[in-house]
Amino acid sequence: MNMNDSKWIGFYTDPSYDESVSDRKFGAPAMYVYKKFDIWKAVRRATLECSALGVYVAYVNGSAVESFLEPGFTDYNKRIYSRKFDVTSLLIGGKNAFGACVGDGWYTGNVAMVRRQRFGKYPLRFAARLEIEYRDGEVQVIGTDESWSGTTGAVRENDILNGEKRDFRLPHNNIFTANYPDCGKVEQTEYPVLPQPSDFEPVELCEKFKPTYIKRDERDALVDFGQNMAGVLHLRVKGKAGTCVTLRHGEMLDNDGNLYTENLRSALSTDTLILSGGEDDFVPMFTYHGFRYAQISSDEPVEILSLEAQAVHNKLKTTGEFTCSSALINRIFKNVCWSMNSNFVSIPTDCPQRDERLGWLADAHLFARTAMYNRDCEKFYRRYLRDVSDAATEEGVTDYAPYVNIFGRNNGGWADGAVILPYFHYRMYGNKDIIYDNLELMQKHIHASSCTAKDGIREQSVYGDWLNIGADTPLDVFCTAYHYYSLSLYLYLLNEIGKNDTEAGLEKEKTYKAFRSNFIDKDGRVKGDTQTAYVLSYAFGLLEKDPAAKHLRRKFEESGMLLTTGFNGGRYLLPVLSELGLDDIAYALIFNEKYPGWGYSISNGATTIWERWNSYTKETGFGDAGMNSFNHYVFGSCVEWMYRYVLGIREGKPGFSEIVIAPRFDPCARLTSAEGQYNSHAGCIKVNWELVKGEYVFRVQCPLKTPVRFDFGKAESKLVSKKGGEYLFHINVSCNA
To answer: Which terminus of the chain faces fewer neighbouring Cβ atoms within 10 Å, N or C?
Structure first.
């Protein structure tokens, strides 16, 4: 199919709406466009391809085509996607109709803190192509053009951040039926960007959750769904015609047991229903919310016939599984998976609830390897890297993508994701196309960061080790370390495709010497003397093993075995500790239930990962509402360590074309068993181990034809049996318990 012969159509749903004021919660009513046609012979197949400037739901003969928030969060001035749907089963003999309801979405609705109209203004536009293949071989094509009809209907207000208002007294589904009268005309318009076919998994309505009613009467109900999520409510309700029902969403309850919404900032996160007088069935089409709790209120008595929450996220295939003998670690793993679900909505967002939901590049690259173990993210990150490329200039890579002209670019630890993401993608999936596709992006970053480095030292970052615990790593140490790391990965990726960059090679050498001479003393102490300084220096190849291990142990002894790392240091913390032979510290951290640590949020009831180590405490209550998400995946990067060090599943070569099995066990034997798997592109890798009478019984199953290397560190291992790709080891590890 080719969308080029379909035209963009639209019309002003409210000609009196004043777009000169962008600081509004809602815009004009949703746009309904539709077309009637006849079918008088047998249909073999029918395919509908759609796109919009806005977001849409397509309908055929009154039935919605399953989709959500298409075409997604994109810079509409650079790139627009279309998606195909098989609608064969929705067609009928005789008179038919199809079309779409189109909402503001990211195109002209509120985006983050920058309000409305970041990409365009009204009218919204829709483009579609229906291709019908008949059994006699004839093919009929119906595209969007000025012959279509347009009207307004039940969706009166809609906004990604603020919610949706539906008036059930007005028409909706029946607009897209053959019996609905032709209404207003549409305008055929030009737009410089042509839709390109989506090549990634769509956002869908996924898992369902039943409520527990905290309180309930005929006008007010407060419910707990038991899981924080990005999602929507599905409500069936009955009440007097004209009754207003309000649905509010929140992640937490305050100390008085009321819905806590202060951390939403300006986002209303509220849906509104005007009842028809019969049974009304509501699922919002053009918004989603971050919540665990919801409040349903009405100005007249109503009957709630049914209520459930439905999670919203890109439907990615599960590739990883993990479970172990510790209920705490299992809960951490589950919470991380749910924060991933909640923030994989079109792009990798920072949070699903407040007026932000941006694709921060640091968050994305810090969590990427965890994400790639959990789910098949190959297409998802390819798509996101296009957004990063679209926003990049010769001045550098933006802090986030798609870009909406706030904050900056070329910041150390953030912009470096332009190289780090393609590197992790290549290592996990083994496809060199990711290098070729992002070569220009990487070169822009390397050039911009090198230009802002002076004699090998770089210190451009307004963020640093974000949300650390009173242990700011000096920006020159932080940024120079990232600069060196990006140069190293860039040169590695170039070598993998038979290329080189002499200038970048010289910059790498200069950066290494500058870091060593300016930031590391004779005792191996790194300037700033923070946990993050040592973690990044070792992880990025700037500090040797012995001094890194010595000073990291010292830093943890000084802190009482508590971490002080922020986003950036926290991502590398556990892997570096295990690489340095400090597994006693790594396991102590993952088992810690006191502040700060992963277990602390769980002891306070978390079902997702928090943005801050202390987003809430029983002693002091909620953290700063200006930036306090309870569903933020970055600190969930610890799950990478579970796969790579607890299970020991690592790639020896890109795409797991060679497998390394290298587990590191708990020296104090608090963790007595673990099992899990990773379904790599080379095949499924399964690990199962258990501590039995002082030794570990370790079972591995690998793809039969894939080379495997084993590394059990200092432990004594004995291969008991090998059958095909299945291995059984007995491993003797001295125990300090």
So the answer is: C
